[in-house]
Design a protein that fits this description.
The protein is α+β, with helices and mostly antiparallel strands and 116 residues long. It contains three helices and four strands, in the order H-H-E-E-E-H-E. The chain is globular and about 40 Å long. The two termini are 12 Å apart.
C-alpha cells in the first residue's frame, strides 16, 4: 500500500520532530496526499472537508452535499498533526486540528487510518 509506505517514511519525524531531521517536502507531501486520499476512500461523501495545507484537501463523510463557498463542516490541520492523526498517535479531539461545524468530529470514526 503506497500510503502506508509513504507515511512510514516520515513517521519517525512526525512522532518526534526534535529528534529526527525533517524529511524532504516531497516526502511529506506524498505521505499527506496519499493518506488523506485513503480517508476519502474509507469515508466517502461530501459533508466534511478535511484540509491539510499546503498539500491536500478532500471531502468525505456521507451526508448533505456541499457545493459552493466555505463548507459548513471543516477539519483543518498542519501536515505533522495530520500524520499523527493518520498513524493513531493522537486523537482528533485532543489534537491541534481546527474543527468547525456539527459534523467535523465524525472524521474521528475513521482514524487512525493505520498504525505504523
Amino acid at each position: 500500500m503506497a500510503a502506508r509506505t509513504a507515511v512510514a517514511a516520515v513517521a519517525s519525524w512526525a512522532r518526534d520532530p526534535e529528534a529526527h531531521p525533517r524529511p524532504s517536502r516531497a516526502d511529506v507531501a506524498a505521505a499527506v496526499r496519499l493518506s488523506i486520499e485513503l480517508l476519502a476512500q474509507d469515508a466517502p461523501g461530501q459533508s466534511v472537508e478535511v484540509r491539510v495545507p499546503p498539500f491536500a484537501a478532500v471531502q468525505c463523510i456521507a451526508g448533505p452535499v456541499h457545493r459552493r463557498g466555505t463548507p459548513p463542516n471543516v477539519v483543518q490541520c498542519d501536515p505533522i498533526t495530520w500524520l499523527r492523526l493518520a498513524m493513531g498517535d493522537v486523537e482528533l479531539g485532543s489534537s491541534s486540528a481546527d474543527l468547525s461545524g456539527t459534523r467535523a468530529g465524525e472524521v474521528a470514526h475513521y482514524l487512525p487510518l493505520f498504525k505504523t
